[in-house]
Amino acid sequence: MKQKNGILLTAVIILVSFVFIITVATVFNNIRNNLSSEVISSLEEEVEQNISLIRSEIEDKFVVLNSLAKELSSDENEEDAVDKMRVFEEVYNFRRMGYVNLDGIAKTTDGYEEDLSLTAIVEEGLAGKSYITTAIEDVLDDSHEKINVMSVPVYDSAHNVKGVIFAEYDSKLFHDLIFSHSMQREGFSYVVNMNGDIITSYGSDTSKDLPSIFSYTDNPEASDNGLRREVLSNMEAGIGDSGIGPNSEDTYFFYCYKPLKIESVDVQWYVFSVEPRDVLTRRMKPIMNDIQYLVIIIVGLFIVANLIYIYYNLKRRRELYQLAYVDPVTGGDNFAGFKQKVKELDNKSGYIVSVDLSEFKLINSVCGVEKGDEVLSEVWKIIKENCCGEEICARVNADRFIVFFAENKKEAVVLRLEHITRQIQTLSENLNVPRLFPVMGIYHTDSLENIDRCYGDALRAKSIVKGRRDKNYAFYDELDHDAIAMNQKLEESFDKALQNNCFEVWYQPKFDAHTEELVGAEALVRWRDEDGSLIPPGRFIPLFEKNGNIIKLDEYVFREVCRQQKQWERQGIKCIPVSVNISRFSLYYSNVVDKYKRIMQHYEVEPDCIELEITESATIENTEIAKLIGQFRDAGFKILLDDFGSGYSSLSTLNQMHFDTIKLDKSLVDFIGNDSGEKLLEFIIGLAHGLGIKITAEGVEEEKQVEFLKQLDCDDIQGYYFSKPLMCKAFESKLERRD
Ligand code: C2E
Ligand code: MG
Ligand code: MG
Questions:
Q1: Residue 227: is it exposed, middle or buried by C-beta count within 10 angstroms (0-12/13-18/19+)?
Q2: H or E element: which one contains 58?
Q3: Helix, strand or coil for residue 514?
Q4: What are residue 356's DSSP bridge partners?
Q5: Which atom, in ligand 1's list, is nearest to the CA of 613?
Q6: pLDDT below 70 — which residues of the chain?
Q7: pTM for this prediction
Q8: How far, in Å, from the CA of 725 to the mean position of ligand 1?
Q9: Best residue among 503, 541, 578 to mutate for probing ligand 1, ranked by most atoms within 8 Å of CB
Q10: Which atom of ligand 1 is nearest to the CA of 537?
Q11: Left, alpha or beta for 389 (phi > 0: left; psi -120 to 50: alpha)?
């Protein structure tokens, strides 16, 4: 599960990162494309603008030259013509001007006289055509500076060519004039003719020797040959184009070329502009910076969100782990945590011990749940401290603990458990709670693979010593499997037995100690088995106290006794009180007083005919029980404290709870004959009488016991000496009739 979540989280992170990278790449690409389009369209605009500028500049100059030519048509004198041209030269910023006669001899405004008959300007001019050169070297003054020369023919009055005038521009001046408005940019522009010869150029590369635009295209190895071919064929077709250079290493990345036609002179030129990729990079930089910050912020947020998610996930896991594996009362492992740790033990052999505290419920009800929790926590600490190395322990639930001892010998386990028992017992004094008595079942296992089964067997072993006072631990191999099966059978057949009236109420008479007259009886239940044999209460009552059936059984006996008393009354038999045993578990049942009162009213029995016996152990420091006893007494019942002296030192309870009678346990009666035991009996009887409480001695079997009890002024005697418990009919025969 954990691994699955991890894979899922990684997949989500990868997916989100992937989507993010794709998005950023797409945005980046879009921006790049948009900026590229922008650069191209500004290039196009610029080319357009330059075309119109160049066109008007050249047209204007030709208008000027033509009007001068017209003016010179009437002038016969070449010197005068040159003089006139000087004015034009200055006004129109020409480098020089000149007049060429029909012999091809040129006279210039700066005094040169040169035969230019073989130059295109003269040849074209004499042929009656206007002409403009590419950027050529000035050969007249040997400066070799780049110049452009424009020429027009001069006609005489008969409209015959009589000469040619020409004007020279510094190419530099020319391109400044043309491109002075151009945006500041990295690239450059050329005006070229169809041969690729440069008319003029502008841009970062113009400081170098002006190359032919076609020098870029002459290398057949170059990767952008395709583009060159396309450019040439477009130029031949007289169309332009723009776009991005195909070669990514090409510094001049963006290009635009458009045809430039000039009316005055029959030339077909092209304006060719390029921009390096740096322009794009530079334009993208601020946007990229913004995107970079945005990406950093988003990635940062993503990381923070992930960290928060991981933090809360870990926290939640820790909480879930706590809930799943940690016991809130002890802070140690719970059973699930124990099972997890067992898995890490690699199937060790050893002993699984189930520990619980006898009568722990009493601590909760007597001292409160908080104190109960404190006891559990302290018990856990003791158990934990007694584990060493790989040994582990946990609280399973309520007062149940499980321990794994990595021991090989039974004797070693016994020693360790006895040590734990002693430590737990001293706890009761330290915490000021009723006596703590740990009960333990032990199961030896060679493998911890099936821990539930091991624990179940340890629990079964514990049932051997449950309720015993002489021993508090038992090994699984001591189990009487027949008895377990029998217990199971008894538990399962309870409901059916109750329905079929298999429970019989027997009566053990009670006698006045002095007159030895029959004064009462105790109702004692027996289970008549299918084969007719009797099962004694000691065999099934502890079982029913465990599974809760005792509540139904006590009520059944109580009903039976009420019904019987009513029947005896109807038969004219004198009523003597019959006491009914009520288990402490029946007392915890809510509304027990009301319920018993209603049953009694239902059978119309007088309350003084029924008495209730409550065992001593139920009464220890229990304010709830004290309240119940008060309510029962208010309802008219007499309350007898059963098994007094059987183990719980509870003389103080005589002060706190109001009993009508104390029943001395057989173990006390058996003290008769022993000096200090007799003194204890004398003290108890004296104390009870002092408090107005009657005494009934139980389990009296011998005459000397009867005699001693008479001497101590004991009130009633119940025991085999006078009578064993009797079946209803046998007991009935002993009852007196009313007069
Ligand atoms: P208990 O209430 O203390 O009852 C007295 C027990 O002592 C009875 O055992 C009785 O047969 C036995 N007894 C009486 N005199 C002598 C004697 O002189 N010598 C010896 N050795 N024993 C004597 P029983 O009937 O086996 O009952 C055992 C216990 O079972 C009772 O002890 C009582 O705690 C419980 N019990 C019996 N019937 C009921 C019942 O209906 N409800 C509840 N909750 N418990 C019952
Ligand atoms: Mg009794
Ligand atoms: Mg008793």
A1: buried
A2: helix 2-72
A3: coil
A4: 400, 439
A5: 2
A6: 1-3, 5, 75, 173-187, 201-226, 246-252, 365, 617-623, 647-652
A7: 0.50
A8: 9
A9: 541
A10: 30
A11: left
Nearest CA to ligand 1 atom 19: 699
Give the per-residue pLDDT at 207.
Answer: 41
Amino acid making up residue 483: A
Atom of ligand 1 nearest to the CA of 557: 41
Hunting for tokens 């309510």 — which residue is that? 631
pLDDT value for 710: 97
DSSP state of 575: P
Query: Considering only CA atoms, which residue is closest to atom 3 of ligand 1?
Result: 643
Cα 189 from Cα 201, distance rounded (Å): 5
What DSSP state is assigned to residue 249? T
Is 696 near ligand 1, meaning CB less than 6 Å away?
Answer: no
- Residue 595: is it exposed, middle or buried by C-beta count within 10 angstroms (0-12/13-18/19+)? middle
Q: Any residues with CB less than 8 A from the CB of 282 and at least 6 apart, and which?
A: none
Locate 689 and state its tokens: 């009488």
- Distance in Å, CA 424 to ligand 3 centroid: 29
The β-bridge relationship of strands 694-697 and 661-664 is parallel
Polymer length of the chain: 739
CB 490 within 8 A of CB 498: no
Instruction: Judge contact between 130 and 168, C-beta under 8 A.
Output: no
Distances (CA, A) of 377 to 34, 328, 398, 455: 74, 10, 11, 21
Tokens representing 442 are: 């032990």
Strand order in the sheet with 241-244: 198-203, 188-193, 267-276, 252-262, 241-244
Q: Are 585 and 541 in contact (CB under 8 A)?
A: no
* Coil, strand or helix at 102: coil
The answer for residues whose C-beta is within 8 angstroms of residue 475's C-beta and 6 or more apart is 410, 441, 442, 443, 444, 461
The amino acid at residue 109 is T
**Whether the Cβ atoms of residue 258 and residue 271 lie closer than 8 Å to each other:** yes
Q: What single letter denotes the amino acid at residue 621?
A: E
Q: Give CA–CA dist 316/333, Å, rounded.
A: 18
Among the listed residues 50, 548, 97, 553, the one whose alpha carbon sits nearest the alpha carbon of residue 271: 50
Token pair 């980046």 is found at: 28
| pLDDT tens string 243-284 | 887 655 555 677 888 998 888 787 788 887 777 777 778 888
Alpha carbon distance 588, 592 (integer Å) = 8
Tell me how far apart the alpha carbons of residues 340 and 320 are, in angstroms, rounded to a whole number. 14
- The residues pairing with 161 across neighbouring beta strands, listed in sequence order, are 155
How many degrees, rounded to 5, is the angle at CA 721 between CA 717 and CA 725? Answer: 80
Q: What distance, in Å, lies between the first and last C-alpha atoms of the chain?
A: 85
| Ligand 1 centroid, distance to 472 Cα (angstroms) | 24
